Every structure is written in structure tokens, then in C-alpha cells.
Amino acid sequence: MFLNDPMSNSGCGCASRSGNMDCPNFGPFIAVDAACISVTPPAAATGGSIIPFSSGVTPVALTSLVTGLIATPSLIGFGTATPGVTLVGETLDLSGLVTEAFTVPRAGNITGLSASFSATLAVTLLGSTTVTATVYRAPAGSTTYTATTATVNLAPAFSGVIALGATAFGSGSFAPIPVSAGDKLLMVYSISTTGVTVAQVLTGTASAGITIE
What we know:
This protein is mainly beta. It has two domains: about 1-45, no CATH class; about 50-210, Jelly Rolls (Sandwich), CATH 2.60.120. It contains no helices and 18 strands. Strands 6, 7, 8, 9, 10, 12, 13, 14 and 17 form a nine-stranded antiparallel sheet that branches. The radius of gyration is 26 Å and the shape is globular.
């Protein structure tokens, strides 16, 4: 679009109008309507990138030990999930196993985490069962993942008779967590229990999202 087109820059913020309607303003230009063009560029997007996670159509089965600690967590990917992995302390060794991790394309900071869980199987639970979502990280070239401080306990905790569709939600608050290009990030769901001395199982769907700036 030429600036001397009388249909597209009538006025156009020019202090003077010469005979050939030259305008000293240069782009980028944004077409507002046929009578004027704005010289103000659009504001840059802020807030970082949002990475979504979902277990998809396959429910996850989260179990706890008789001690109330985590037994087997589930890995949540992008429409899929992998249950029954072995957690040692705060470390997951996925050598030769299926992984739901993604690789970080550039350096940044994890600044936010939100997660939800919905029961797909009615069950009666003893004590109080809390669902936790945690981001695990492995450096480039490694298959050993370690828990980060990007973690959130979902509320409310589950107890007693759990109806089909019962849900819990949580958003994490933590200091920015630096990640480097090539790091692999993994969303891990687990449960822990209190006030009980028997193993518990909670089945449902999981979804979460993290922000990387």
C-alpha cells in the first residue's frame, strides 16, 4: 500500500500535505480503516509459553504404600499417560522405558504450574489421600529425572466414598526454576495418604500446564 494513495492515508498524521501527497512517516503501518494508517506497532506478547499436559483417554492409576508414601506414580504427556513407574526417593530412572518428557528448546524459567485430577472410578478410600503434580527434570543426554520445586498438592484431598467425576485442583507458587536448552521435563502425578496403614489406589484423568518464560 503506497502512502500517496488518497484512499489509504488521508491525513495519516502528516504535518503537511504536498501536491503529490508524500508523507514522511515510515512503517511498519497498521491499517485501521480506509481513511488512515496507524504508525504504532502492536504490543509484544508477554507471559511466556504455556505447555499443556493431559492423560488423554487412558486413566492413570496412582498408588500409595501402607506407610502413606508414594508407591507408583504416573507420567503425564500430551494426550497419553504411562502408569506404574518406579520412584526412588525423588528420582525416576527411565533408562529403556517409555517416557512422556519433552525437550526444552531454549533456556528459560519455569514460573507457573496448575494441575487437576478427576476420578474415573468410584472407590472408598481410608484416611486422607492427596494428589500431587510435580515437574521432574533430566539434563541433556540423561534418562534420570529429579523432582523440581515446581510441585503442587491438589485440593480437596480425597477421603471416604469417592464418586465418579470427583475433582481436585491446585496452582503452584514457587521461585523461578531455570532450565537449559536440551533439558527434558516430565509431569509426574502421585498420591500420598495420612491416617491409614493400608495401600490406596486412586484412578482418574489428569491434566496440567506449566509456564516457561
